[in-house]
Write a structure and sequence with these properties.
Helices cover 36% and strands 17% of the residues. It is an alpha/beta fold and 765 residues long. The chain has 3 domains: 261 residues, Rossmann fold (3-Layer(aba) Sandwich), CATH 3.40.50.740; 218 residues, Dimethylsulfoxide Reductase, domain 2 (3-Layer(aba) Sandwich), CATH 3.40.228; 114 residues, Barwin-like endoglucanases (Beta Barrel), CATH 2.40.40.20. The protein has a 6-stranded mixed β-sheet with strand order 6-5-18-17-16-7. α14 runs parallel beside α20. The longest helix has 23 residues. It is globular and about 75 Å long. The two termini are 15 Å apart. The structure holds ligand MGD (2 copies) and molybdenum atom. Molybdenum atom binds next to loops.
Length: 765
């Protein structure tokens, strides 16, 4: 890691030479300069592998190499030459590893052997795959009730592995599927079906080429979906308006230098992205959305009465929707002074944005975690849908709603049945295809799984990827629950916190990554994934596996199933593992939308899973799209003046709990992460000085003290009453009960805190 530690102004645009330089450094650090570079050329190509980074789609998977700094980092992270071997585990007790940072743990490299925790020596020792599977089978069979086991999925898991996983778990007898999506876009999956009849976005990549304006709420494209910058840059150059709402002036929302554009690179110029970037208060989006819609409906009323002109799409509203009257009534009753106070934006700014939206024939509304990770996440998503519906911006060329998904296959995992609330039709098709009766009772999501563990109702935790222990809220409470499990199992590629905070027995099962050759009885296999825009395509690994002892995720599921269900299983697991085409045939049998699955993934670019809302076919109870008003501004009622709203965000150099480095170039932070972004005015108002160190303490009424210590105050252009720090360092501050009641999404982006002068004013080492 480069040793520089500083806070400084970073004036370069997003992308450009800074991105090339950063990726080069990362490749060297991971020891993959040559291999990594050739690996990168195969990413997102017709015959290559799908980027294990984000879920943003590719232009038909047929373009020449599309440079993406963070996609490159994700690949190099997986293709690293470093190895975490049994010798490494022999040299360190787990207690010692508990003192290592997350960065240090993952920097040990790829896991090479299955390992089992040994209490006597406090170390992980190598174990055979058969022994590991037998341990899982023994524990699961011993549980008096299958609902005492939890089966987590992180969204890198392929459709094939995810389908087998849910098949195993349902044959075993539970719907307990806590999923990374529960911490991410669940507000979309739960909120949108009530509005539009579908829990996914309604746009395709080509809509970005035709739209007149793009509104971006709470999403950081330059860091978390950098390939989106190409679409935004093109739209901006075409003259489409781009209006962003974010408490940070994220650099990629300001300007972008396209690494593939020789002129911008040679002349050091860049393209402006947002025509307006509104620094909304943390949690202020509901107020903005109500303000925007208030202008629309009141302007429409005025124009209709004065000039017989419609500002809203009344044909669409009458023909396709229900409930507009209640929405209009609520908006009319909403006062501007409240909107301004809650959003932190002026009426004039909101009016200007609303007029741009009103005049645009086609608009796209993009959003990310800044919307979903709030107590009112699902309702906020519904307000975004309302905004679209008022102008008929759903199911129209160049228009629509665009939730930007997280993990590269988080959407696909859901599509193929990893869900704690399975639809009856899906279960009956599963039963028909496989001949066993799947459980119908709803299972646990992340929050309810954690509650079950805390109360001792769940005893076994199995994790298909991810690093749940670091990703969840309320560490003091939740980590204890992990330590009290009878068994914790993690299918992983790298060592992480979830292996350290473990149950009485614990297993680490190392798996192949997406870049690697997956050789099975019928030959090398491809897997499939679904991106943010519901395009499904194949991905074929090309690299030699990091170790000869790795197994593929589907093979690991089959091993667990075999050891748990034995001969009573009605599934022929071996056949599925020999040839993944057969898994895809089974997926097609259960989910008709995958019609001709194997044939269609062989087409260049794969195929699109149709979104009913895109076709204006509303799969809601009423058969129409629903306007769903939201009274007030959420339950984040006004707190004392000294309370700050903290939002937790990703740095430019991290992938969720994985840190590529300790820097965050675009925000001017180098070599450190224990910082609190806050305005100079707030620092002064509270009697502090920039660079002073403070402790952050959650404001809650449950008597539990939640604190993280020694954060440096970094004066940053940030809205009043708000501050920001990095995830996962701030996760101990989020109370488990602080989640959206509809979607159970933890409110990671709206944490009321107080800051106090730190006892020790020194930097952590
Ligand atoms: N390189 C990289 N790529 C990734 C990931 C990664 O960690 N690294 N993670 C993947 C995953 S799982 C996901 S879910 C996505 C996440 O991608 P994003 O949705 O972009 O997630 P965040 O960076 O957490 O936050 C998004 C933005 O919301 C803003 N924000 C914070 N609070 C608020 C608020 O109250 N209102 C508004 N309007 N904005 C707010 C933040 O300043 C930030 O710019 O990216 C995926 N891609
Ligand atoms: N405070 C706060 N908390 C948050 C968020 C936030 O914005 N703020 N964001 C939330 C969101 S959006 C998400 S999605 C979650 C993320 O939660 P997770 O998905 O659980 O976490 P990751 O950090 O993505 O998991 C990293 C680990 O995945 C394993 N891994 C990587 N690739 C593979 C693979 O191909 N197969 C397998 N089996 N394992 C692999 C590696 O061992 C690595 O250590 O965190 C959530 N937590
Ligand atoms: Mo996510």
């Amino acid at each position: 890691m480069s040793g520089k530690k500083s806070i400084e102004r970073y004036d370069e645009p997003a992308g450009g030479w800074g991105a090339l330089r950063a990726l080069g450094e990362h490749l060297i650090e991971q020891d993959v300069a040559i291999k990594g570079a050739t690996t990168l050329l195969r990413m997102n190509q017709p015959l290559g592998f799908d980027c294990p980074g984000c879920a943003w789609p590719d232009p038909k998977h047929t373009s020449s190499f599309e440079f993406c700094e963070n996609g490159g980092k994700a690949v190099a992270w997986e293709a690293t030459a470093k190895r975490c071997t049994p010798e490494f585990f022999a040299a360190h007790t787990v207690t010692e590893l508990g003192t290592w940072s997350d960065y240090q743990l993952e920097m040990t490299g790829r896991l090479t052997h299955p390992m089992a925790y040994d209490q006597a020596t406090d170390r992980y020792l190598p174990v055979s795959w058969d022994e590991a599977f037998a341990t899982i089978g023994r524990h699961l069979s011993a549980l008096p009730d299958p609902n005492m086991a939890e089966f987590y999925t992180s969204g890198r898991t392929s459709n094939e592995a995810a389908f087998l996983y849910q098949l195993f778990v349902r044959e075993y007898g539970t719907n307990n599927f806590p999923d990374c999506s529960n911490m991410c876009h669940e507000a979309t999956s739960v909120g949108l079906p009530l509005s539009l009849g579908v829990g996914k976005g309604t746009v395709l990549l080509e809509d970005f080429d035709r739209t007149d304006c793009i509104f971006i709420f709470g999403q950081n494209p330059g860091t978390n979906s950098p390939r989106m910058m190409t679409s935004l840059r093109d739209a901006s150059r075409r003259g489409a308006a781009i209006i962003s709402f974010n408490p940070f002036r994220e650099r990629s929302l300001e300007r972008f230098q396209a690494p593939r554009n020789p002129i911008e690179m040679a002349t050091l110029t860049s393209t402006p992205i947002s025509s307006r970037l509104h620094q909304v208060k943390v949690g202020g989006d509901l107020a903005v959305l109500k303000g925007l819609m208030k202008v629309l409906v009141e302007e429409d009323e005025r124009l209709r009465s004065e000039r017989q002109i419609e500002a809203l799409d009344w044909d669409f509203i009458h023909g396709h929707t229900d409930g507009v009257e209640a929405l209009v009534a609520d908006l009319k009753a909403t006062r501007w002074e409240d909107i301004e106070r809650r959003s932190g934006l002026s009426r004039a700014a909101i009016e200007e944005a609303a007029h741009i939206y009103m005049k645009a024939e086609k608009a796209i509304v993009v959003y990310g975690m800044g919307i979903t990770q709030h107590r009112h996440g699902a309702k906020s998503v519904q307000q975004l849908a309302n905004l679209c519906l008022l102008k008929g911006n759903i199911g129209k060329d160049g228009a629509g709603l665009c939730p930007v998904r997280g993990h590269s296959n988080v959407q696909g995992d859901r599509t193929v049945g990893v869900t704690e609330i399975p639809a009856a039709e899906f279960l009956s098709r599963l039963e028909k295809r496989f001949g066993f009766k799947p459980p119908t009772a709803h299972g646990h999501n992340v929050v309810t799984a954690l509650e079950a563990m805390i109360q001792g109702r769940a005893r076994v935790f199995i994790s298909m990827g991810g690093n749940i222990v670091a990703a969840i809220p309320d560490w003091q409470v939740t980590h204890d629950a992990f330590r009290r499990l009878a068994l914790s199992v993690h299918v992983s590629t790298k060592l992480n916190r979830s292996h350290i905070v473990h149950g009485s027995e614990a297993l680490i099962l190392p798996c192949l990554g997406r870049t690697e050759i997956d050789l099975q009885a019928a030959g090398p296999q491809c897997i499939t994934v679904e991106d943010s825009m519901s395009m499904v395509h194949a991905s074929t690994g090309m690299n030699k596996p990091a170790s000869e002892h790795l197994k593929s995720e589907p093979a690991i599921v089959a091993g667990m199933a075999h050891a748990t269900l034995g001969i009573r299983s009605v599934v022929d697991w071996e056949i599925f593992i020999a040839d993944y085409n057969l898994i895809r045939d089974a997926i097609e049998d259960v989910f008709p939308i995958f019609d001709s699955y194997n044939a269609r993934i062989r087409l260049a670019g794969g195929f699109h899973l149709t979104s009913t809302a895109r076709e204006r076919n509303w799969m809601t109870a009423s058969g129409k799209a629903n306007f769903l008003p939201f009274e007030g501004f959420g339950d984040d009622s006004d707190l004392d003046d000294d309370v700050l709203w903290l939002t937790s965000v990703r740095s430019h150099d991290q992938y969720n709990t994985t840190l590529y480095s300790l820097s965050d170039r675009y925000r001017g932070v180098f070599g450190q992460r224990d910082v609190l972004f806050i305005s100079a005015e707030e620092i002064e108002k509270r009697g502090f000085k920039p660079d002073e160190r403070v402790d952050l303490v959650t404001v809650s009424d449950d008597g539990i003290e939640r604190v993280v210590r020694n954060f440096k105050l970094v004066a940053h252009g940030f809205p009043a009453g708000c501050c920001a720090a990095y995830y996962p360092e701030t996760n101990p501050l989020v109370p488990l009960q602080a989640h959206d009641p509809m979607s159970f999404t933890p409110s990671y982006k709206g944490i009321p805190i107080r800051i106090m002068r730190a006892f020790v004013q020194v930097e952590a080492v």
